[in-house]
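Forum: Protein Structure Q&A
Topic: Joint prediction for protein chains with partners

I've read a bunch of threads here and the consensus seems to be that you should model interacting components together rather than docking separate models afterwards. I'd like to see that in practice. Below is the full input, 1136 residues plus whatever partners are listed. Could one of the regulars post the assembled result?
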Amino acid sequence: MTEPLLRVRGLKIGATVYPPGEKPRDIEIVHGVDFDLERGKVLGLIGESGAGKSTIGLASMAYGRGGVRITGGEVWVNGRDILKAGLRDIRRLRGGEVTYVSQSAAASFNPAKPIMEQVTEAAISQGKFTRREAEKRAIGLFRKLGLPDPDNIGRRYPHQVSGGQLQRCMTALALCPEPDLVVFDEPTTALDVTTQIDVLAAIKEAIHDTGVAALYITHDLAVVAQVSDDIMVLKMGNMVEYGPTDQIINAPREEYTRALVSVRQIEHPEKLHRQASPVLSCENITARYKGTKFDVLKDVSVQLYPGQTLAVVGESGSGKSTLARVITGLLPPSGGRIVFSGRELTPDLKSRPKEDLRELQMIYQMADVAMNPRQTVGTIIGRPLEFYFGLKGEAKQRRIQELLDEIELGKGFQDRYPAELSGGQKQRVCIARALAAKPKLIICDEVTSALDPLVADGILKLLLNLQKIEDVAYLFITHDLATVRAIADSIAVMYQGRFVRYGTKTEVLSPPFDDYTDLLLSSVPEMKLGWLEQVLATRKMESAGN
Amino acid sequence: MFRYMPVSAMIGLTLTGLYFLAAIFAPLIAPYGMAQVVGDVWEPSSREHLLGTDNIGRDLLTRMIYGGRTTIFIATMATILSFVTGSILGFLAAVLGGWADQVLSRMVDLLMAIPSLILALVVLAVLPVTVTTLIVVMGLLDATRVFRLARAVAVDINVMDYVEAAKLRGEGRGWIIFREILPNALSPLVAELGLRFIFMVLFISTLSFLGLGVQPPLADWGGIVKENKDGIIYGIGAALYPAIAIATLAISVNLVADWVLNRTTSLKGGRG
Amino acid sequence: MHPILKLVSQRIALGLLLLVSSSAMIFGLTEALPGDAAQAVLGQSATPEALENLRREMGLDRPALVRYVEWLGGIVQGDLGTSITNRLDIATSIGSRLSNTLFLAFWAAVVSVPLAIFLGLLAVRYQNRWPDKAISGVTLATISIPEFLIGYVLVYFLAVQMGWFSPLALINDTMTLGEKLHSIALPVAVLTMVVLAHMMRMTRAAILNVMQSAYIETAELKGLSSFDVIRKHAFPNAIAPIVTVVMLNLAYLVVGVVVVEVVFVYPGMGQFLVDAVVKRDVPVVLACGVIFAAIYISLNLAADVVSILANPRLRHPK
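Posted by a regular:
Agreed with the consensus. Here's the joint model:
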C-alpha cells in the first residue's frame, strides 16, 4: 500500500483561555483524532461550532491560530511528520505543498496590494514557478474559476471586486503554487445562496481538474456532500463518525450524524386562514434611508393573519430587514401605510401608543447583543411585565417562571447573566422577553442564522409550539429556504426591494416559477449526492433551450 | 470580581491607597508645621530631618507630605470635575444626536485643537491664580478628553440591539441612559479615570513648577521642585524627591488602571 | 475630481477653519475673562482714571471684534503687535526664539523618531517576552514623570555629578553646530525620553493591530519568512498609522518644549511664553499661543492627510 498524502494520528490540540477576572488556564480542544487522505481525494470535516474542525485543518499546515498549540500526535504529509519538522521545512510545506482558503477572503487579502501579486506570491517565493509562469497560471485559474475578465482582474485591488469573486480569487491563490493539498475552511459560508452554488461548482471543478487533494471544512452537511469523497463528523473535539460520503449521508450509524442529516426536515403543513381580518397589513410601502437617493423598498404590500407565519425570503441587500425596520417604526416609510390589528400605525416609533408597542414585538439575529450583558435573565424577562402590565414582586416572579418554563429553560436561570448562557439558551430568553408582552405579532429577524443547525432546529420547533399555545403571528425574515419550509404558512420572496412572488407556502413553492425564485430555490444545497451536478446540468439545458 | 488579581495590580492598589491616606492625614503624620522654618538652608538628611531641609530651612519631609496633600487634592477635584462634565455631556451628545451632538462635538474639537498646556497658560495669563481657578481650568480643559471617550462608548452602545429593543418597548430616555447605557459604559470610564488622574497630577505639578500653579507658601510637589531647583547645581538633590513621589504614584495608578482595562476588554458582553 | 484630492482639500480647508477659530478662541478667552491688559500692567490697585487712560492708549476701548480682525490681519502680515512690558516689537523678539525652539525640536525628532520605531518593532518582534516587557516598563516610568523632573534628574547626574554637560543650554549664533549640539544634548535627551514612550507605545499598538489581521495569517500560511511577512504585508499597511503616530507626537513635542526650555533656561519660544504669562503680557501670550496652536494644528493636519493618502480604498476607487 502506498503512503497516503496526509496521515493524522492521535492529534491533540490545546489552547490557553483567559476568562475575565480569573487565572488563565489551558484547555484541550481536540482530543486525539485519526484520519488518512489519499492523493487527489477530498475529505469533508463537518461539525458544529467548537467541534475543532478548523483547528484540525490548520494543524495539517503545522499552524495554530492565536494561542492554539498542537499538543500531541503525529501529522504526516508526503511521508514526514511535520510536527517534528524544522522551521525551514515547514515554510516549504506551507504555501508549497499545502495551501489554505479561508472563510473571509475579504479579510484574508492584503488591502494594499493588487490581487495578482498576492495570488502568485507563494508560487514564486517557493521557487516553483517564475513570475511569468505563475501569472500565466493564475490567469488560467481565474478563467477556470469563472471570474470575469480573467486577463485583467489580477490588476485590481481586493476591495474592487465582489465577495463571491474574491472568494474565487482566494481559491486561485491556493491552487496557483500547484499544491498537493488545499484546506478549504468554510469557503462558501459567508456567501449568499445563489452565489454559493457558483463558487462551490467552481471549487469542485478546479479540484477535479488539478487533481489536488482537499480538506473541506464546513458546518453544512449538504454542501460537503457535494464535494467530498469521505466525511468525518466531529463533535467537541472528538471524532463521531468517519466514512464514505454515501454511507454518512444515506446510512449514518451514529445518533449525532443522523441528527445532522435529518436537520432542517421539520414538517409543517401550512395552516389555512381562519379569520378574515389580517393582524398586519402593509399597503404600498416605499422606503429609503436618510441621505440616499435609492428606494430600498418599492411598493411593498403584504397581509399576515392571526396565528400564522409569513416568511419574507431574500438575499443580503434585498430589503427584507428594512421591511422590519419600517413596521417597527424605526424607519418611517416615505409612502404607504401599515394597519396593525385594525388600527393604522403612525409611521414614527415615538408617536405610537404603548398598546401598539406591546402587541408588536421583535426577536433579533444575534441574541448576545440583543440582551444587556449587565442584566440578569430575570430582569430581561421581567422588564416588559413591569413596563406593560405593572406586575411587581411575587406576581412578576411567578410569571417569569412561567415564561422560563414555556421556553423549556426551567428553574435557576433567573439570576444568570447572558454571558453564562449558550447560544440557543440566549435566543430562548429573547423569545421569552417577546412573549412576556403578550404580543399579537412577533417579527423574527434571521433568528436562527447565527445558530448551529441542531440548535436552530430546536428554536424553530419551540416557535411553532408557542404559536399554537399563544396564537401569535410571526413575520419571519430569513435568507434560508430550509427554515422557510419548516415554519411558514405563507411566503413572500423579496428581490431588490420588491416582492417577486407572494402567496401561500404551497403556491410559492410550486411551479411554474419566476426566474428569481427558480434560481433561489434551485440554489439551496440538498442533502443528496450528485445534487450539484444535477442542478448545473438542468441550468445548462435551460440556457441552451433559451 | 477579585477572584484573580495580578500582583502588579495589588501593589498598585496598596501604594495608591497609602498616598491617599497620607494626603488625608497629613497634619497628623507630618513631623513639623507646613511653613515652619526649623533649620538651616538645605541641611542634609539627619535624624531630625529625614529628607533634610529646603531652600529656606523648612523640613523637607513635612513639605513633601503637605505637598502631596495639595497635589492630590487638586488633581482629585479636577478629575471629578472633568469626569462629571465630560461624561454627562458625552452621554447626552450620543443619545440626543442631531444638532446638540454637532455643537458639543465641534466645540470639543476646537478646544482639543490647541494643546491643553498652551490653552491653560493663555487663560492663566488673565485670571488670578488660585486653587479654585486651577481646578476649574484643568478640569474643564480635560473634560474634552472624557467627553470624547464617553461619547464614543455611548455611541457604540446606543446602536446595540438591546438598546434598540428598549426603544421598541417604548422606554423613556432616562431608562435608556441609566439602565441600558451607563452600566455598560462604566468599566472603560473607570479605567480612564486613573489615567486622567495621573495626567492631572503631572499637569498641576508642571503649572506649579512654571510658577503658575499653587502659590507659596502652600506646598505642592511641583512647587518644591521650583523652590529647590537652584540647589541642584551645588549637588543638592532636594528638588528630586518629588520626582520619586510623582513617579511612584503615577505608576501605581497606572497599574490599577491597566488591570481594570484588561478586565473590561475581555469582559465584552460578559457579566458584571 | 479624484476622490482622494477632494478629501485632502476638504481636510486642508477644515484645518484652515480650525486655525482661524482657534485664534478667535484664544483671543476671545483673554477678552471674556475678567481683567485685561491694562489691568495687568497697572495691577489691582490702579485708579479707574489711570486704567481708562491706558485702555484708550492701548486701543482697548474699541469693540473686541474690531480689535480681533485687526490683530488677525496683523498676524497674517507678520505683525504680531507690541509687548506691554518692554514695548518691543513681538515679531522681532520671537524670530530668533522660534528658530531656536524649532532647532531643539528638530534634533529631538531626529533622535526620537527612528529610535521609537525601532523599539516599537523590537517590542512587537518579542511580544510578551522580556525585551517587550523591559521596553514597556521603562516607557511606563518615563510617562509617569513630568518632563521637568526628568530634566533635573539628568542635570543632577549627568551635568552636576559627572560634569559631562552644562546644566544650562545656552546657545547663540557665534557657536558652531557641534557646540550647539553639545549644548542642547540634555534638553534633546529629555524631549526624546518624553515623546519616545508615547511614540513607541503607539507604534507597537499600530503594528500589532496590523499583525492580527487575517491577511498576515494568509502570508504566514504561504510559507513566507517572518521578515518577508513584515516587509511585504505588515509594513505597507502599518506605514500610515506609524506616520500618524509620529506626527501626533511631534505635535506633542511642541508642548514638551515649553517646559524643557524653562528647565534649561534655553532662549526659545516656550521660555518666552512662560515669562509673558508670569508678567501678564497679554499681547505676547496671544502671539505665542497662536504660533504654538498653528504648529500643533498643522502637524495634526499632516497626520490626517498622510492617512488619507495611504488608504488603498481611496487611492484605488472602485
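Chain A has 21 helices and 20 strands.
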